Amino acid sequence: MTELTGRDLTLAYDGRVVVDGVDVDLPAGRFTVIVGPNACGKSTLLRGLVRLLAPTRGAVLLDGTDISRVPTREVARRIGLLPQSPAVPAGLTVEALVRRGRFPHQGLLRGWTRADQEAVDRALDRAGIAALRTREVDELSGGQRQRAWIALTLAQETPLLLLDEPTTYLDIRHQFDVLDLVAGLVHEGRTAVAVLHDLNQACRYADQLVVLKAGRVVAAGPPARVLTADLVTDVFDLPCDLIPDPVTGTPLVVPHDRRPHRRPAVEAAGTVTG
């Protein structure tokens, strides 16, 4: 299993620090979910962890080795990344896109194999888009396109998956389908890291939460231990109560009612006259 670690990790764009001195441990064989308000550095942290953005200070360790010293093809064989809103070349079919997930396994002496095709077929099936394999990606709905990218990541068959907002564009049923799929991969032995916006989904699925605020980690650990009403209020500026999820027992965030002119419940429901 593959383990990823950030030590004193500082990431910046054009001299502006976005992630500031972060220590983060992403344990092997676990599902870690990164949460935090908009523009707090979640996606930037993910890009730094997968070596798409070089740190200005600190290091990312892949199984104890500085990732900057690991050959690019080896990184691609060990870490799969689903980026946020990736661009697709015009005219590319779903299957052609997903086949790109096998590129790290190709080489001068190794062409396309039956094992590669089987990996693509499995990925299309697990993402629920096998019937769309001949469709062009730019003709798909946002949700279908997102699942095509998820299938590409699955076809890569890496021990570690990094997913930046994988439920974007998906309706609620397909959101849970994707999260169930990721949780199943973790159960099979893979390591997964995802950026999510929905705190309740994060608490239900994560083995570990990493909570960011203004580019710093303010809490990390199992959801039941680290998530409190005070933390949600402080990080998200959202007064709330926490109750146990009636299905899983994990923390469930219930925001306080902030409507200024709420009608009484009886009036809102209407009256019944005989």
TrEMBL record:
The protein's name in its UniProt record: ATP-binding cassette domain-containing protein
Keyword Nuclease: no
Domain ABC transporter per the UniProt entry, residue ranges: 4-239
Keywords: ATP-binding, Cell membrane, Ion transport, Iron, Iron transport, Membrane, Nucleotide-binding, Transport
Organism: Micromonospora echinofusca
Lineage: Bacteria, Bacillati, Actinomycetota, Actinomycetes, Micromonosporales
InterPro entries documented for this protein: AAA+_ATPase, ABC_transporter-like_ATP-bd, ABC_transporter-like_CS, P-loop_NTPase, Siderophore_ABC-ATPase
Entries under SMART domains matching the protein: AAA (SM00382)
Domain of life the protein comes from: Bacteria
Membrane topology annotation: Peripheral membrane protein
Localization: Cell membrane
GO MF annotation: an example: ATP binding
